[in-house]
């Protein structure tokens, strides 16, 4: 069985289900981690919000090149292959870009320039972006691969984009819980299961947990987003796995 995990950003699959990916590759199942928003930082000015994130990440304008290298290292620790799509992270997308058509007067308008904006719906200027992405995915995906996409817990706009595109493919999907947002969205998960979504719990060994922790550690620039240091990250992942008893995936009920 071949698995393809769709990762909105370069760390989401490592964060959410790195231990499961490692168990699958240890079992001889090929796994690919395909990151949707992995494109270069566009030319031109950045919003103050994007600049503040670069400062925290300590990456500067080489942020995406740096993060792609982190992802390659993380995938190696999980024995998974990787693929990077050219869509920029939402913090860089502007009206008038290739992905967000607009007139010349609006070319410098940033579509997602606050924390509140990135945890909201897709901007109307990007109405066609999910359809465009679905076409690219349909051309690249192996027909028999099992496809896994985020549940969009937390509501990040790039997670919404990824799920919309995946659901536009007309394939039966698996869904993973977006960690660490999943820690605060237990009611949403319970509601899914109450409505008939099918849950399968995949066991993760101690070796799988350690590989998971190492994969997340490879995304060094992102650690400060969620934790004060690597030790805190390792403890948090261990506690998360212990609370679940494995890594769950979900499927919608068959209609």
Explain this structure:
The chain is α/β, with parallel strands linked by helices. It has a single domain (3-251), classed as LmbE-like (Rossmann fold). It contains 10 helices and 7 strands. The chain has helices at 12-26, 48-57, 63-78, 115-118, 129-140, 157-167, 186-194, 206-218, 223-226, 230-244; strands at residues 3-7, 31-35, 81-84, 146-150, 174-176, 198-202, 247-251. Strands 3-2-1-4-5-7-6 form a 7-stranded mixed β-sheet, sandwiched between helices. β4 (146-150), α6 (157-167) and β5 form a beta-alpha-beta unit. Residues 99-106 have low confidence and may be disordered.
Can you tag this structure with a few keywords?
255 residues, alpha/beta, Rossmann fold, 7-stranded mixed β-sheet, 10 helices, 7 strands, 43% helix
What is the CATH topology classification name? Rossmann fold
Helical coverage, percent range = 40-55%
CATH architecture title:
3-Layer(aba) Sandwich
* Separate helix tally: 10
Percentage of β-strand residues: 5-15%
Shape: globular
Overall pLDDT: 93
Distance between the termini: 24 Å
Find the structural class using helix and strand composition: alpha/beta
Q: How many individual β-strands?
A: 7
| CATH 4th-level superfamily | LmbE-like
Layout of SSEs?
Layout: E1 3-7, H1 12-26, E2 31-35, H2 48-57, H3 63-78, E3 81-84, H4 115-118, H5 129-140, E4 146-150, H6 157-167, E5 174-176, H7 186-194, E6 198-202, H8 206-218, H9 223-226, H10 230-244, E7 247-251
Parallel strand pairs: 1-2, 1-4, 2-3, 4-5
Antiparallel strand pairs: 5-7, 6-7
Helix pairs in contact: 1-3, 1-8, 3-8, 5-6, 8-10
């Amino acid at each position: 069985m071949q698995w393809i995990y769709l990762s909105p950003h370069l760390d989401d699959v490592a964060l959410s289900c790195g231990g499961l990916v490692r168990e699958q590759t240890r079992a001889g199942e090929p796994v690919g981690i395909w990151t949707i928003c992995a494109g270069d930082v566009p030319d031109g000015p950045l919003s103050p919000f994007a600049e503040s994130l670069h400062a925290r990440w300590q990456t500067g304008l080489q942020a995406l090149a740096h993060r792609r290298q982190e992802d390659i290292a993380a995938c190696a620790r999980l024995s998974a292959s990787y693929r990077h799509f050219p869509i920029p992270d939402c913090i860089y997308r502007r009206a008038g870009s290739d992905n967000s058509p607009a007139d010349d007067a609006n070319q410098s308008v940033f579509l997602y320039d606050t924390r509140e904006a990135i945890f909201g719906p897709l901007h109307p200027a990007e109405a066609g972006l999910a359809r465009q992405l679905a076409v690219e995915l349909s051309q690249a995906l192996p027909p028999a691969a099992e496809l896994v996409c985020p549940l969009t817990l937390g509501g990040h706009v790039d997670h919404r984009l990824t799920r919309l595109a995946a659901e536009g493919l007309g394939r039966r999907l698996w869904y993973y819980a977006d960690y660490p947002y999943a820690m605060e969205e237990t009611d949403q998960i319970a509601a899914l299961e109450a409505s008939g979504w099918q849950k399968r719990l995949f066991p993760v060994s101690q070796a799988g947990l350690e590989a998971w922790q190492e994969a997340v550690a490879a995304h060094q620039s992102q650690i400060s987003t969620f934790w004060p240091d690597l030790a805190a990250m390792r403890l948090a992942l261990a506690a998360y796995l212990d609370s679940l008893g494995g890594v769950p995936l979900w499927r919608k009920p068959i209609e």
